[in-house]
Amino acid sequence: MSYPGYPPQSGGYPPQAGGYPPQSGGYPPAAGGYPPQAGGYPPQAGGYPPQAGGYPPQAGGYPPQAGGYPPAAGGYPPAGGYPPQAGGYPPAAGGYPPAAGGFPPQAGGYPAPSGGFPPQAGGYPQPGAGGYPSMPPGGEATQTKPGGPQQGYPGGPPPGQPMPSNPGPSPGGVPANPQAPAIPKGYRGSIKDFPGADPLRDVEVLRKAMKGFGTDEKAIIELLGNRTNKQRVPLVAAYKTTYGKDLFRDLKSELTGNFEDLVVAMLKTPTHFDASELREAIKGAGTDEACLIEILSSRSNAEIIEINKVYKAEYGKTLEDSITSDTSGHFRRLLVSLCQGNRDERETVDISLAKQDAQKLYAAGENKVGTDESQFNAILCARSKPHLRAVFHEYQQMCGREIEKSICRETSGNLENGMVAVVKCIKNTPAYFAERLNKAMKGAGTKDRTLIRVMVSRSEVDMLDIRQEYLKAYGKSLYTDISVNLLNLNNPTKTEDIRHAM
């Protein structure tokens, strides 16, 4: 079931013909415009700079003398123009275009640098050969309404008109098809903000999907699978504002099983989701120790502190008290240390200190009868992650064995699993989560809760890296394994949201 605008059909994003890049009359102009065509630079008769009587009038030839070009204050380009320069035009050393030998060019013309302006082979594409990219780095492209006047780049005046010092919004205000916010550099998540998402329109889709006989699960999947967490969470308040009902309650009454758990998880903030998963791991007859270690070893100090606040507010008991009452021994100490959110987070590494810590670990385990678990706990839970990676390297150099193997030789049970998980997460977090996903799908049954938790919590953090590590480690894509393991279950649609996150 589809609804208008989810996702936009033809004419949406990216813009269709008539949008950007502009056609003839746009920027750069066709033959005869600027930059000049055949004839090169300096141009031939009639080119640029213009001859006597042209623009701007010269006084004494080229380069211009006093009063010539560049023009005085108030001329073209205006102060603060595009691109803004300090000191006018031509720009000072390091300005645009950069050219060895300075300006004006020497005999033989002005050689444009590779990829410069006008572009050489491999430079900036011309219209008709791929055109200009629709999204310039660091900003949004200005849309051109079909049938309307063509615009410059981006949102500038028509060719031949001066560039204003502070370009205002394009005619008509906001573009017809809003663009998604710029994605932070280095973003490794697989879900991005949906352009122009409106919570009030989105809750209409959810309401229609749940009304009447049966539930349109595909409509719910299509919407939630294409929204980031910050676009999904406001739907809870918007739903209550619009319909006076609780979205969680309505979804739970319409959905069942793992699909219900998945949808509810996607509508929680990351902090509330982590707190609820920790609660589920602790309460009841058994304890999911792997879940406790997974969350506490992979979250930052700030995230753990927020989890502690939400946990106390939601469940009336501190996370530390819950851990203490449900675990024991050195494993309890490991979890209590991790839940403090007090790990050193400095990026600098002192190699001499790393060597000392490696020696302490060796002396506490391999080089003594018995094991000093407290020394392992102190180093693994307090030192920064960059520092610990250096410690693990020095340890292997020192005793010829990886730290995980030494931990397995010196400890057992939950403590062994916990410490090994901490080491793996610190060494390579995406590889650690790839292993968690693989183990969740191996064997007779699928650990759906682990699968849902990892996919939801990492989809906007490092899912692209997790996919790479999964393929590297297991020779199959994560998408393939999820499809093979889950599509033949009773409710195949429950996996669609998970696959959207990949």
TrEMBL record:
Give a Pfam family name.
Annexin
- Note the SUPFAM superfamilies from the entry: Annexin (SSF47874)
Q: Which Gene Ontology cellular-component terms appear in the entry?
A: cytoplasm; nucleus; plasma membrane; vesicle membrane
Residue ranges with Pro residues bias: 155-172
Keyword entries, A-Z: Annexin, Calcium, Calcium/phospholipid-binding, Repeat
What is said about the domains? A pair of annexin repeats may form one binding site for calcium and phospholipid.
User: What name appears for this protein in its UniProt entry?
Assistant: Annexin
Species source reads: Oryzias sinensis (Chinese medaka)
